[in-house]
Write a structure and sequence with these properties.
It is built from 1 helix and 9 strands, in the order E-H-E-E-E-E-E-E-E-E. With 133 residues, the protein is mostly beta strands. It has a single domain, classed as Jelly Rolls, CATH 2.60.120.10.
Length: 133
């Protein structure tokens, strides 16, 4: 289990040296405000916040245009702020804060006509190629 930045954990939890959260008391909590302050890794559009097994939690806040390409794993977006249209496999749907959006592995998807405050949690999980339906 890895936590990419101790600052993302809630103040009531402390990370172990090396960023390992295994010995932290449950529940593990992650602050959107803190995640928004962590710059993406070089060459990435999003910031890795947490990982455990196949689960990968990232923070994504595109500005202007969303240029992402299909991913090799299933993906869920939890919309924290902002509104717009989500395109997935040729289908468009409106979204807003509190909505969950799903993109299966390999699907063409992106955010369109979104507000300047768009911010989402990105949750990758499962094997490459996606899970069987």
């Amino acid at each position: 289990m890895t936590v990419m930045s101790p600052a993302v954990l809630s103040p009531r939890h402390a990370s172990l040296p090396g960023g390992d959260a295994c010995a932290m008391p449950a529940p593990y909590t992650f602050s959107a405000a803190a995640a928004a302050l962590i710059p993406p890794e070089r060459g990435q559009r999003s910031t890795r916040v947490f990982g455990h097994g196949t689960l990968e939690l990232r923070w994504y806040a595109p500005r202007g245009q969303d240029t992402q390409t299909p991913h090799d794993r299933d993906e869920v977006y939890a919309v924290v702020s902002g509104r717009g249209t989500f395109l997935c496999n040729g289908v468009r749907a409106s979204f807003g804060p509190g909505d969950l959006l799903f993109a299966p592995a390999g699907a063409e998807h992106r955010f369109e006509a979104f507000s300047d405050d768009l911010a989402v949690w990105v949750i990758f999980y499962g094997p490459e190629g996606g899970e069987a339906p």
